[in-house]
Each structure stands twice: as structure tokens, then as C-alpha cells.
Amino acid sequence: MRLLERGEQTAALAAAARSAAAGRGGVVLVTGEAGIGKTALVTGPAARVPGVRVLTGRCDDLATPRPLGPLRDVAREVGGPLALALAGRGDVADALLAELSRPTVLVLEDVHWADDATLDLVRTVGRRVTGLPAVLVLTYRDAEPDGGAPLRSALATLPPAAVTRLPLAPLSEAAVAELVGEQVGDGAARVHALTGGNPFYVTELAAAGTTAPPPSVRDAVTGRVAALSPAARALVELVSVVPARAGTGVLDAVLPGWPVAAAEPERAGLLTVGPDAVAFRHELARTAVAETLPAADRRRLSAAVLAALQRLGADPADLVHHAEAAGDVAALAAAALPAARAAAAAGATREAFAHYRRAVPLAGALPDAERAALSEELAGAAYLAGQVPDALAAVDAAAAAHRATDDRRGLGRCARVRSRLHWYAGDGAAARREAAAAVALLEPLGDSADLARARAAVAQLAMLGDRAEEALAEGRRAAALADRLGDAATAAHARVTTGTVEAQADPTATATLEDAHRAAAAAGDHHEAVRALVNLAWTQLLWLRPGAASAAADRAAAHAAAHEVDALGGYARLTTAWLRLRAGDPVDVETAARAEAGRDGSVSDLLARTLLAERAVRRGDPDADERLADVAARADRTGELQRLVPVLELAVEDALVRGGPMPTARAARAVELARAAGGAGWGGGRLAAWASLAGVRHDADGPAAPAHAALLAGDPRAAADAFGALGWPHDRALWLSSLDDADALAEALETARALGAAPLAARVTRRMRELGLAVRHGRRGTTRAHPAGLTARQAEVLRLLAEGLTNAEIAARLVVSPRTAEHHVTAVLGRLGAGGRREAVRRAAELGLLSS
């Protein structure tokens, strides 16, 4: 295990070992809870100093400890007088001190389990060690049951000046993130919350690739529980069925006399006892205990907790949890809807959706109006939680109930919501159709907040379709109506749209968007607050201002995370990942794209697929053509230039690099769409630049970003410089590759190899040979650093092969097609010269390729 956040302790232990080598001994006390990394520290390189040997003995958790058990471990290693003394033929203390007369680090682990004779030796050696070339290292848990008293007594006899104390704290979330990496899908924050930063738990979860307790954790925890008295064990089992913490009121009702039993598991480091609640020290340990209980016991304990909570008038969410666990349908039906509405009011969108999904089937025979209202609430919660299919099903159910009562206002509301859902699912035509229907239904009924929202939806879709004048007119009309009605959230929504149109035309005109963000947040509409920041990021990206775009995307992601706006949070993170990809840092791309790819055809799914397609095209992956065709078809379905132009850019780049036909028809369709919208189209200069490269002219009025202006002017040198100024190395190298200049081509080749951009490297090589220039040979940057010459993707496939995954499982893990996974596996076998998967894994192990 890598030692993170242990720099001070490592340095102190190394200093003690060096001091011992110089003849000045001492005592080092390494303390912390079980799994905190004591053994990893003392058995690591810190204690290993040239000329100083390391001897290790361990105390065992036995009902009756072995007399001098750790010294017997040491004697097996050194033999001689110490072994004879332990066999009864000499004084053990004298023999041990004689062993320590040469430079030595003596490690005695887990001395909280030490027998009395071992503790006597600790006293003896500890008082004399300063005069020896040795350091005595003791590890122990600083919160252990009754055995701790003799240890504390022994430690009290050590000379304070000779003692160095090294307490080990739990890891921070940042360290957990470094240990876990991408191995656990729920992310570092979740792992940190479950483990409390305990390194043992963290590494076990990382190895298992899940946040469910793996067998190693269950065994460790249940072993400690089994050692408790029956009363203490009963308390631990009761607390295990209560997430987070068990209130003392519940414990008083269910297990009278619990405070007496609590001391034992508290000393064992299992529970923490506060003035009003008892909780597990680590949530992962709670889950491990709960999972080992028989189902009947879990149900019985949950029923007892539920009864106590009902008497105490507890939060509906707590009642829902325990009613479900106890199988009490009546209690669940009574609590689910209040819990859903409370969660929605608090902005807890994921929890609200989960509660609504429970409540609706349990609602029974409701009047049509009530059933419609409940279904609309479910639709809203599902959308905010990013669950579009559930939202569509709910809004359809609401519309059916409204039709039964001929409620045209309700039907208008449903049409507006359905419009948003269709847009999010990537169906632009259906979205526009439903928005128009919403206005048609609501307008005859007079001014209302529902009509203002419908007009705001029409304005938003006009903005997304590059119909700037229509978007501004409808957006301002919707905002004015919302202002008259005192509907601050709808007014903010409309101004997010008009502000986006303004920033699309001028990237410095961001005041309206910023004001709309603040107004939406103040009104409690955090979805619109995030949308304002996402749109701000994209208008900046449109004008090739990556710094401003990244800052806005980071703000959007943070606001989305803080307020559970899952529908847009992934989109914001993907925007940041795309910027990182363009900057030559693909680390975030795989993580962000995997989280969103395949998410019900949403716009986030399309953006994720676009990122993965760009990465595949630029690396020359076997599935690059397949990915590009897939995103092209999905972008066409939206009918929006903001989806179409990035695909056009990628298709033009692919044709330019590989020497294939330009996507002229695709460029012509994009230009036709821009002209039909009555404006310059998405970014004007951006569309014009890439369309011109495909042989399609598009006259765009107004300014363009420097890189786009250079492309329009046919100046690849200026384009390369402009992209270089943005910090986008691949884009710079692409346009350098168009120059008949030896230095430019050499730089382009070096960059392409460093980025692992095989197609671009091949293009540059061809051009250099055409010009009669010498080509420096070398493997791609991604393979040069790998001992077996594997690309980063192939190394990842090798690790998955070592896990025993099939091609289909590898495809699912990497979000690629089974055919592509097969290509990768074949390439790995070829690189390793292996005839099969097992042989490849065996050879990789022999070469040490699986150790990192």
C-alpha cells in the first residue's frame, strides 16, 4: 500500500533509525485505530537504513497470549543466545539487550495484546535503549478494551526524553481519491464517507471496485463484534440497522440499559457515543455488521426502531427507511409522500425522486386531480435527478388524468414539461412541437405563471436553434409576464435564455447571465442557476476562451453538486473534461464520459459520446469510425448547431489527417440550418471556418475567434499559433502539419507522438517524406514509457484481462463495443507474444507489468 499523508511520521521513523546507527537509541510509539496503517509504516522503507537491521515480532489476539510471543518471532530470525534464553537456558532480558548492542530497529507490533512478560521487557529495554545503537518501535491501538491498562502502565515507565510519538490520523478525501482513482464507481467522496479515511477499508474497497463491504472487511469487523459480550453485541447489532446514527431516544425505547453495554464497543473502536446519539466509527463497518445479520433479525430490529420513531414523531424519511426494512407497507404508505415533499422542498432531488417513486404506487385510488398533481411532482423530481424515462412516464400519467377532467391548464403544464424532457433526450423536433402546444393550450386561458413558463420554454428552444431574434423576443416577453406575476424563478429562466443569446454574439456580454444565475439561486431554482453557468461556459467555449469556459464549468459543477442538480451536473463535468482533453490531458475524459455515456440518450450522453469519439479519432482507435458515425447520427436528431458543429469539426479533422473525403454534405446541411435560422449560426465564424475547409462557403457577419479567423483566411501558421496560445497542443500540431516547414513538421511530429495521436503522427511522417525531410523514428509517446510498448488503453485492457474479465465485460467497463474490445485484446496478445489470455497475464506478471 502506498503511504499517503504519512510524510512526517516516515521522516521521524527514518531519523530514529539513523540515530540508532550513530549509537543514540530511543523509543518510537506508533499509534492509531485498526487498519490505520501502523504496520505499513513500520515495515516500509523508512526504518531501513544502511547498516541497521530490522527485527520484527508480533503480539497476537489470543484468549491467553503467548508468553514473550513477539520475542519468539525475533528469536526465530536471530537464533543464538536469545533463542537459548527463551528455551529456559539464560536470562531473556540480558540476551535481548545483547542483541541490541549492534545497530537494530526492533519492532514489536500490536503491543495492546502483549502478555505481562513482554511488557516487562518493554520496560527494561525502554529504560536502557538510549545507551544502545537501537530503536524500539511499538505499535498499538490507542482505544482498545481492558488490555490497554497494563500497556499504559508500562509506557509510563519510559523516559519521556527518549520517546517519539507518531499518531496516525485517517486519510483526507484527497488522499482517498489518489488511492481509489477510477476503481470505485461511486467516487472518492463516497468512499471517504464510508471509511472515515481508514486506509485498510479504503484499499479493500479499491481492490473490490465497489462500496459494498468486501469479504476482507466483513471478516475483520465481524471478528471484533464476535469478541464482545452478549449485551454489547446486541447494542452493536441494533445500531447497525440505523443509518448514520441511532438517537438515544430510540435506544432508550428499544434497549433499556444500553449505556452500560456501550462502553465495551466504544473502547474497541467500533462505536462512538455522543450526548444524543450512538454511531459506528466507520459507516463501512456498520454496513458490514448489518449485512451479516440474518434477514429475520434485521427485520425485527428495524420494526422495533420504527415503532420507537413513530412514538417520537420522527422525520418521515427515517420512517420510510425503517418501514421498508421492516416490511411494514402501511407505515411506508403513510410516510413516503410527506418524505418526498419534504425532500423536494429542501432541494434534495435524488431523495425526493426516490420517495416519490415509492409513494405513487402506494397512493391507492385517488381522484384524477390528485393523481395528476402527484404524477407531475414525480416527473419534476425525476427530471432533476436525471431520470428522463421515469419523468416521461410520470408526465404522461399526469396528462392522462388531466384529459379525464378536461383540465387544459394541466395539459399545458404537461406539454411544457414534456418539451423539456424531449430536448434533454436529444429529440429537438419533439421538444419544439410540445413547447408550441403548451403555449396554444395556455394562451386562451389568460396570463398565468404556467403561460410565462411555456413562453420561456419556446424562447429557450429558439436560442438552442440559433433563432436569436425569436429567442430574445419570446424570452423578454416571458420575463415581463413573470415579473408582473411575481414569479422570480420563471423570470430568471427567461433571462438565462436571453443572456445566452447576448453572450453568443459577444463573449464579454455576460452580465445578464450572471444576474440570472444569482436570481435563480435566490428564488430556489437551482436547476436554472446551474443552466446559467453551463450556458456561460459554452458561450465562452464557442469563442475559444478556454480559461473563462473552464471557470464557469467548474462553478456549474460545484453548484450542481451542492444542490443535487444531477440533470446538468454531469454536463458541466463533461465540459471541463472536454477542455482538459483539448489541453492534452485526457485523464478526466474517461471518468466523466463513463459516468454519462449510455444515460438514456440524454444531451449529457451525446456530449460524453462526442468526447469519446474525439479521443478515439485522435488516437486512431479501431472503433473511431464507429464512434464518429454514432455521434453524427445522434447530433442530427437534435437539429441543433451546437451539437452538429463539433461533429463537423471532428469529421473535417479526421478527413484532413487521414486523407479521406471531406464531409461536404454534412457541412452543407449545417450551413443550410444556420441560414434557415436567420442568423450567423452557432458561432458564425466557427461554423464558417470549418465549413470552408469542407468546401462549403458560409458568409458569417461579425467577429470571429483568432483561430477561426485564421482558418477562414487560409493561414495555417496563424491558426497553429492561435491554437497554441490557447494551450491546445493537438490543434496546434494539426495546423503545423499543413506547413512546408521542417521545424514546424518536426514539432508537430513530436507533439503527436507525445499525445499518442497515431493518425496525426502518420500524416506528419508522410508529409516529411514527401518533402524529402528526415524522419526521426520512435514509438508513440504513450508506448515509449511502457515496458512492453503498450498504449495506455492496451495497458488498461491488460489489467482487465488479469481480473479475468471476458471481452463483453471489458467492453462494458471501457464503454466500447465488444468488437473493439476484441481488437484491443488481440493487440495486447500480439505485443506480449502470447498465444492466449492466460499466457498474456502470466507473461505480464513475469515482466512486472501488473504491479502498478
The CATH topology name of the domain at 7-169 reads Rossmann fold
Distance between the termini: 11 Å
Average of pLDDT: 88
Helix content: 55-70%
Radius of gyration equals: 33 Å
CATH class of the domain at 7-169: Alpha Beta
CATH level 4 superfamily of the domain at 7-169 = P-loop containing nucleotide triphosphate hydrolases
Q: What is the number of beta strands?
A: 8
**Shape by Cα distribution:** globular
Strand content: under 5%
Q: What count of helical segments does DSSP give?
A: 46
Q: Give the assembly state of these chains.
A: single chain
Question: What would CATH call the architecture of the domain at 7-169?
Answer: 3-Layer(aba) Sandwich
GO biological process, one term: regulation of DNA-templated transcription
InterPro entries: AAA_16, P-loop_NTPase, Sig_transdc_resp-reg_C-effctor, TPR-like_helical_dom_sf, Tscrpt_reg_LuxR_C, WH-like_DNA-bd_sf
Keywords: ATP-binding, Nucleotide-binding
GO molecular function: adenylate cyclase activity; ATP binding; DNA binding
Write up this protein.
The protein is mostly helical. Among the domains are: 163 residues, P-loop containing nucleotide triphosphate hydrolases (Rossmann fold); 55 residues, Orthogonal Bundle (Arc Repressor Mutant, subunit A). The chain is built from 46 helices and eight strands. It has a five-stranded parallel β-sheet with strand order 2-3-4-1-5, with helices on both faces. It has a three-stranded antiparallel β-sheet with strand order 6-8-7. The longest helix is centred in the middle third of the chain and has 18 residues. It is globular, with a radius of gyration of 33 Å. The termini are close together. It comes from Geodermatophilus nigrescens. One of its GO terms (cellular component) is cytoplasm. This is Regulatory protein, luxR family. GO terms for molecular function: adenylate cyclase activity; ATP binding; DNA binding.
